[in-house]
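User: My instructor asked us to take a sequence, write out its structure as tokens, and then describe one feature of it. I'm not sure where to start. Here is the sequence I was given:
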Amino acid sequence: MRSMLKSAFVFSALLFVSCMIWTFRPAAASDSIHWMSYKEGMSLADNLQKKRLIFFTAEWCAYCGKMDHESFKTPPVIKYINTHYVPIKVDFDRDNKTATTYNVQGLPDLWFISENGESISHRPGYIPADTLLQLLRYVSTDSYQKMSFPKFVKQCK
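Assistant: Let's start with the prediction itself. The structure tokens for your sequence are:
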């Protein structure tokens, strides 16, 4: 009996570890951004003490779709977001309360939130992949505290 309990415990432990490895597999191996709901993403970011990237979008928004199918499909952008941010996607129509909280006036609208939950900045409108990647780096490295975005871009060339 004791041997069966020990075997069951070992099996359960191995299953748990396997699930954890699958759940938290390296972001670099992914071909898509691991978008989360607002509630789920904010909670995870609090626990991980990680910056949040909130993408406000809507099905009817043409430029939102363009960002989804172009900017957010670029491998360097995918890898950078999955590595350095907790990505959160908010549908403007389905979660208007959250959109109102952030005073979203137009779509798409990309918000950067600090590790402690404070707003860093936001960028409304379509952002091409190359500019988006620079903006992601600018915020994640805290360069926004030291210099303007144009200066950061110039230094990176």
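For the description part of your assignment, you could build on this observation: The longest strand covers residues 52-57. Try explaining in your own words what that tells you about the chain.
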